[in-house]
């Protein structure tokens, strides 16, 4: 269930959307989401209280907003409760390294969608052949964790935040959807189509830019260009059919 939230986004300060999700034991857990910033606010220890069904529902909400315009995070993020500055840090789990933004007063933390997916183990790191394929067809992408450009012709990780290049794992998503009680309509797309999906989305973005002059400069073409698309967006599209109602 999605409701208007009284809290403002730690980055853009617009009102967030409150999501009421099932808890792991009893009752519901309320979290706040900003789909423009691709961010989630969790009160202290709140992310640990989410049931598997809640995570699948959150996937659905993210997928519904996958085409929403995305804006970069502000350099300084603020706690929506005390308005104090959030402190950036890093956490490491089996599926990779991700950025966290925590309130020093322990009111909670702000996570990007990509960081949350890494935390919950719904991603896998790209293999070297996949990185080589993407580098040959695209060249440069954006880091899903911090938004910095990553030149795949020279780097196999983000040079800014050192996050590994990760993709949503269709098999993990399929399991989450099955926990929700929804059968997958078909097998997920193979990971070899990642580069082709990036190129297709870049072409679509370029077309929209030509049709909407106000967006000029936001999309910089296909081959060798810095795109405003990241592997998180591509992963959502690749597994989108698993999340449809």
The end-to-end distance, rounded to whole angstroms, is 15 Å
Largest sheet: 7 strands, antiparallel
What percentage of the residues does DSSP assign to strands (E)? Answer: 25-35%
Structural class by SSE content: alpha+beta
Helical content class: 25-40%
- Weakly predicted, low-confidence segments: 180-186, 214-228
Count of distinct structural domains: 2
Structure overview:
The chain is of the alpha+beta class and 245 residues long. The chain folds into two domains: 2-119, no CATH class; 126-243, no CATH class. It is 29% helix and 26% strand. The protein is built from seven helices and twelve strands. A seven-stranded antiparallel beta sheet has the order 1-2-3-4-7-6-5. A three-stranded mixed beta sheet has the order 10-9-12. Strand 5 (87-93) and strand 6 form a beta hairpin. Helix 1 packs across helix 4 (170-180), helix 3 (128-137) runs parallel beside helix 5 (194-211) and helix 5 (194-211) packs across helix 6 (231-238). The longest helix is centred in the last third of the chain and has 18 residues, at 194-211. It is globular and about 45 Å long. Residues 9-47 form the Transcription factor zinc-finger domain. InterPro entries: Multihaem_cyt_sf (IPR036280), TF_Znf (IPR027392). It comes from Roseateles puraquae. This is Transcription factor zinc-finger domain-containing protein.
Helix/strand layout:
Layout: E1 2-8, E2 15-22, E3 28-34, E4 39-43, H1 52-64, E5 87-93, E6 96-102, E7 108-112, H2 113-119, E8 123-125, H3 128-137, E9 140-142, E10 149-151, E11 166-168, H4 170-180, H5 194-211, E12 226-230, H6 231-238, H7 240-243
Parallel strand pairs: 9-12
Antiparallel strand pairs: 1-2, 2-3, 3-4, 4-7, 5-6, 6-7, 8-11, 9-10
Helix pairs in contact: 1-4, 3-5, 5-6
